[in-house]
Hints:
The structure holds two protein chains of two kinds.
Chain A: H1 7-11, H2 14-38, H3 54-65, H4 80-86, H5 121-129, H6 131-134, H7 155-164, H8 173-183, H9 185-190, H10 196-207, H11 218-228, H12 240-244
Chain B: E1 7-8, E2 15-21, E3 25-28, H1 34-53, E4 58-59, E5 62-63, E6 69-73, E7 79-83, H2 86-110, H3 113-118, H4 120-137, H5 139-142, H6 167-176, E8 178-182, H7 191-205, H8 212-222, H9 229-233, H10 264-277, E9 279-284, H11 293-306
Antiparallel strand pairs in B: 1-2, 2-3, 4-5, 6-7, 8-9
Amino acid sequence: MLKNFKHEKVETNAGVLLVLTMLAISAGGLVEIAPLFFIKDTMENVPGVRPYTPLEQRGRDIYIREGCYTCHSQMIRPFRDEQLRYGHYSLAAESKYDHPFQWGSKRTGPDLARVGGKYSNEWHVQHMIQPKSVVPESVMPNYPWLMSPLDYADIGDRMRALRVTGVPYSANQEEYQRNVEKFGADVAKTLHIPDARNILVAQAQEGNFDGDRASVTEMDALVAYLQVLGTMVDFSKIKPEDLVKYR
Amino acid sequence: MADHTTGPSPASGAQTTGHVWDDDLQEFNNPLPAWWTYGFYVTILFALVYWVWYPSWPVGAGFMTGIGKVTYVNAQGEEESWHWNTRAKLLAETQEASALQKPYFDRIASLPYEQVTQDPELNSFVVSAGKALFSENCAACHQAGGQGKVGFFPNLTDDDWLYGGSFERIHASIAQGRRGYMPPYGEAMSAAQLDELAHYVVSLSGAAQVDAAKAAKGKELFNSHAGACYYCHGDDGKGRQDIGSANLTDQVWLWANVPAAEGDAAKLDAVRKVIASGLDKGVMPAWQGRLSAEQIRLLTLYVHELGGGK
């Protein structure tokens, strides 16, 4: 049979070519991706990682809406130059509640995986409105419209959608109790879908991320998100060689 | 379209694949050059070696770890090996590199700050390593040269310090962060009182021509119970470095952009606005935890040098 096989048949028949190409690509994909579901040690067991609060989650949505990922990665690779510049390399566990993850590879701007706590809220607000005003050589665009009010009416639906993908937002008392055991009461409260709107407003007002307590703006949400990036895991409590052994 | 006569092309005599399009368009069937074919075999061989040396194929719940090993020092100070992976390699490389810089860091950590600045070798290490650290972590606020930005971030290159310019004070500013706070007076004071206060504050540095009578009234308010400015800025208006209240008697302004305001009225207005709205936006992040103790010490030296030392 093979003897009669002529590649001309594939080359001149678009349908066959398409099917065979797809088969070849999925073989590559399967070999790379499928084993990760079976290998035990891909996800580090480190304390501290929690799902985003409603406000941070809305900030993350805005981050995606504005296409910040087209210029910023969120993945510090385990190389010395990156560690020196950005801080500890990213762990798989740190993006386990990210759907979709924001690892990326395009770095027109710096990696943001550990930008949380690096700057003040005031700096972020100023930098988002007009990056050149604080970093004169910046090529990052201005985002002045982020000072407009945040639409958070549908935050419950957004959390429910993420819950379907496996993020442990709680929809009922039983799930809430499970979160209390897993994350402690303080965090569990912020993950409870029925209270999401109140929690969101409370965090925006208390954090005062945009420097204006009166209104909840998109800036509040985005800065709250930026300020939590990479801060959940306390690396001073983890021995570096333990992380080596997850690979 | 295609017809199937293999064999030499009638035109050139070269071997063809037998594909013919548009009557006479044929495809040559020349063998690949030998170097290419053998190169291809070498890549296959390379892959085999690679699979054996490095972690490669998944097997059940694990994977082939490869025979390559990396050795590093663990938290107990013992040498430890693990199969080759980028994290292990990074750990080993970091330990190696810090061993190279260790003599410098050890001397910087063990010597008093003053002695470090007098040692030319250490000093040039401080300048080069400090500059790199500064541009990555501090320049976004204090700007590349440390000159700051009026209305946002203080200038670190002058010898005027909110919180003090000694090594110890600079170290504390960097390690613990700072957040200056001044209450707003917009509601507690009448417009006339704000005006008088502004006159007095401006008169302290002589930045503008002011109405002496108003300034005198302002001075009273400044030192009164109601104004209580003296409590934070001192009777003389020179400020207190423990809380970072600005020195109001010099020409250095951070929040009220007096130097850039044109005309006496505008200068007074800039000061009046700051008094009315108060200040709570001067936030310097804390770097302890984010930077290592050595890095903070190095930055202390670097910033001290930027400011000409004190």
